[in-house]
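FAQ
Q: What does a multi-component entry look like?
A: The components come first, one per line:
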Amino acid sequence: MKVHTHIVMDAHGDTRHTFNPESEVEVSEALKRFDQLLKTHTAARRLGEGRSELVRSFNPADEEVLFFRKLVGG
Amino acid sequence: MRWLAAIEMMIPGLLLWASFIGLMCIHDWILYGLNARAPQAQKAEALIREWLSPEQLRQYEEWRKFEVTGSAGGRYLITPAYIHVLNTGQHICFVPDNFSVLPAADVMLARKIALENDEVGALKVACRLPY
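Then the predicted structure of the entire assembly, as tokens:
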């Protein structure tokens, strides 16, 4: 079974939500989570070799998407 | 004895600079060293290692800082405390808005992703540090 992951940076270091991209129910839940997170977070998918790409819409094919809160001046 | 007077005039500046370096070291130690063994710090450590390039990982393991090239071509050194703009020598800072609860490695990873994918956007929110 394939497992794709949404990783959310938080006080625990991160929290990981996994879903099976071949399961309609799990993809639907993952879509809801993605849309909810995107209101307050920036999302990026890992491309390998240190490269990444910002994502603005849900794609169940993305194996690993990382969410971190919107940036502010430090 | 003019040289002695010149050295005396430089002493306050040198002390100020040494104090600043000392404070930054303490800041890094608190951010990184003191909390490095906490479970959340270990998770963040594992996460950043997955997302860094081999060269960035080498720098991170050696110096706890690493270089990135921004999406618009700028070069930066990301440290646990601030970001050194290598092109200008300036120091800047931006963080996720929940940074106070995040391990330092998470903050560094967020900075890397932001600069490598949306350098202009990241610079818009960044604070310019006065040193």
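Q: Is there any commentary attached?
A: Sometimes. For this entry: The helical segments of chain B are 2-34, 39-51, 54-63, 104-117, 119-125.
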